[in-house]
């Protein structure tokens, strides 16, 4: 039979739970477990018996009352004999404990005061300065159609201010401050340690980069910015170990912030201008190609224009005017020729006014003067008087000369009439031919206008983009950010940390007093629970 050892083979015991008399009011003794003496002995025990490959439970007879009980572990009541008297502690006990532990109170008070004084003397001072800025979300309206638009909604404006607030403490701004003030060489921001020397010895790296990173970490911990509620005012908080350096840091951060905003807007405008310039090359090629198609079409169809009008239209108009003038001259020449022909046929060459020439005028004057002489002679002389006969013979000669001059004028009028008729016929032929050209040119001009419209639209787009690109390029040189400093950083009156020495001493004294009192009470309670002292009467 297999049997476990006594500590392991001790089975479950069925016993009666012990009962303790509790006070009527209740105390901390209610939570104290019953002692080993109050526990009833078990009535029976069980053990395990191994038979072959199986194990079975075997009931063992209950041990006699005379047998020695196994040793049980010590309970809390054994370690703290007076634990059941915990509820009887009163104010007198606490006073006694404080009186007995007065030395601990005095020691804690002295140590805390000394520690506070040492910290006040050795702690690194902090001088904090504040700068107030107004970050207006709407930029200055320098140009009418700026690249950046302003959202009138208040929520969007607050988001814009919060974004700029984040830029104020960004690494770009802080890096500008580090480079400007050379903080990577300042022992206040970069403090060399033995660990850094070992790292540099084991893994050599760029020392300036490590110093910049260290200065960046320290500076980012010393800078804080927040926005005042329901306003666009931003408060910048900066601290340093020296008041002048804190003011220099604050001013440098503000300048770097303004420079960063200007650079950001300039870079954004530069990207827009660069994209427009890249687009301008294609637009320029499109305009050149459209204008080339217009000129090729004009050349192929012989469409010439002057002052925006086709030459064929102008020529047709001029020919029509010439036809009207030629027709008028033809009518005048025809009328004059017919009047002369009628006067010659009627023998009215001497009196007809249509015959106009210098020779005809002289002949008429001679004829009129001779006619007057003949009339006078008829009254003075007889019909057969030699002088009258000679005058009549001379008159006949003048009439013949006048008829010859009239025929000559008639022939010239006939030549003018024929010339005007031929000229009119020629002009009409040219006008008719030009009309057909005008119709052809007008049909071609429909397509030409379409090509010209396409060229004009592309040219307009190109000119718009060109002007916009030049405007945005110039916009890069203008700072439109609306950030104003309303309160510059002033030298602080006192350090912000640590507090004054007197304040630290008072705080250390209170802390030491509390620690001493707590220590005295803890020691008194320990001695009471261990039974070294009794409760005060």
Automatic annotation (TrEMBL):
Topology with respect to the bilayer: Multi-pass membrane protein
Coiled-coil ranges (or none): 266-300, 360-430
Region (Disordered): 1-26
Tyrosine-protein kinase G-rich domain: residues covered: 446-522
Entry keyword annotation includes Coiled coil: yes
Name of this protein: Lipopolysaccharide biosynthesis protein
Record keywords: Cell membrane, Coiled coil, Membrane, Plasmid, Transmembrane, Transmembrane helix
Gene Ontology annotations for the cellular component aspect, listed alphabetically: plasma membrane
Polysaccharide chain length determinant N-terminal domain location: 90-181
Keyword match Metal-binding: no
Main location: membrane
Entry GO MF terms: protein tyrosine kinase activity
Superkingdom of origin: Bacteria
Transmembrane parts of this sequence: 101-121, 502-526
Compartments, as annotated in UniProt: Cell membrane
InterPro entries: Bact_polysacc_biosynth/exp, GNVR, LPS_length_determ_N
Cited Pfam families: GNVR, Wzz
């Amino acid at each position: 039979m297999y049997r476990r050892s006594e500590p392991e083979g001790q089975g479950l015991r069925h016993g009666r739970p012990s009962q303790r008399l509790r006070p009527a009011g209740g105390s901390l003794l209610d939570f104290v477990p019953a002692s080993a003496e109050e526990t009833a002995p078990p009535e029976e025990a069980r053990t395990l018996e191994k038979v072959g490959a199986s194990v079975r439970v075997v009931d063992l007879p209950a041990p006699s009352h005379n047998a020695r009980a196994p040793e049980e572990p010590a309970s809390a009541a054994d370690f703290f004999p007076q634990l059941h008297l915990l509820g009887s502690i009163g104010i007198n006990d606490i006073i006694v404990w404080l009186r007995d532990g007065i030395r601990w109170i005095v020691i804690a008070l002295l140590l805390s005061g000394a520690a506070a004084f040492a910290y006040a003397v050795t702690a690194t001072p902090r001088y904090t300065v504040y700068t107030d800025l107004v970050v207006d979300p709407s930029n200055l309206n320098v140009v009418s159609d700026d690249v950046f638009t302003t959202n009138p909604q208040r929520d969007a404006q607050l988001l814009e201010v919060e974004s700029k607030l984040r830029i104020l403490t960004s690494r770009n701004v802080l890096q500008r401050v580090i480079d400007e003030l050379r903080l990577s060489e300042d022992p206040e921001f970069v403090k060399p340690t033995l660990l850094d020397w070992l790292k540099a010895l084991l893994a050599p790296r760029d020392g300036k980069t490590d110093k910049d990173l260290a200065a960046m970490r320290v500076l980012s911990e010393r800078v804080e910015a927040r926005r005042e509620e329901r306003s666009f005012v931003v408060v910048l908080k900066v601290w340093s170990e020296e008041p002048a350096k804190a003011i220099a840091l604050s001013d440098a951060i503000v300048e770097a912030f303004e420079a960063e905003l200007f650079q950001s807007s300039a870079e954004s405008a530069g990207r827009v201008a660069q994209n427009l310039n890249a687009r301008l090359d294609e637009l320029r090629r499109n305009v050149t190609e459209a204008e080339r198609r217009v000129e090729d079409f004009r050349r192929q169809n012989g469409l010439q224009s002057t002052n925006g009008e086709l030459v064929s239209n102008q020529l047709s108009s001029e020919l029509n005017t010439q036809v009207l003038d030629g027709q008028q001259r033809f009518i005048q020449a025809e009328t004059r020729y017919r009047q002369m022909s009628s006067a010659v046929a009627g023998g009215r060459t001497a009196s007809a006014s249509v015959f106009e020439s210098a020779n005809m005028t002289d002949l008429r004057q001679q004829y009129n003067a001779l006619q007057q002489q003949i009339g006078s002679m008829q009254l003075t002389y007889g019909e057969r008087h030699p002088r009258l006969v000679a005058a009549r013979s001379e008159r006949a000669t003048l009439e013949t000369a006048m008829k010859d001059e009239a025929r000559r004028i008639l022939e010239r009028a006939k030549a003018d009439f024929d010339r005007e008729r031929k000229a009119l016929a020629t002009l009409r032929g040219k006008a008719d031919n030009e009309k057909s050209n005008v119709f052809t040119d007008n049909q071609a001009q429909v397509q030409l206008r379409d090509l010209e419209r396409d060229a004009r639209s592309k040219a307009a787009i190109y000119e718009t983009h060109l002007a916009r690109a030049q405007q945005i390029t110039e916009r890069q040189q203008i700072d439109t950010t609306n950030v104003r400093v309303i309160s510059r950083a002033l030298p602080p009156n006192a350090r912000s940390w640590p507090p004054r020495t007197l304040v630290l001493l008072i705080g250390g004294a209170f802390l030491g007093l509390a620690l001493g009192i707590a220590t005295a009470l803890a020691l008194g309670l320990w001695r009471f629970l261990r039974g070294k002292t009794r409760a005060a009467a």
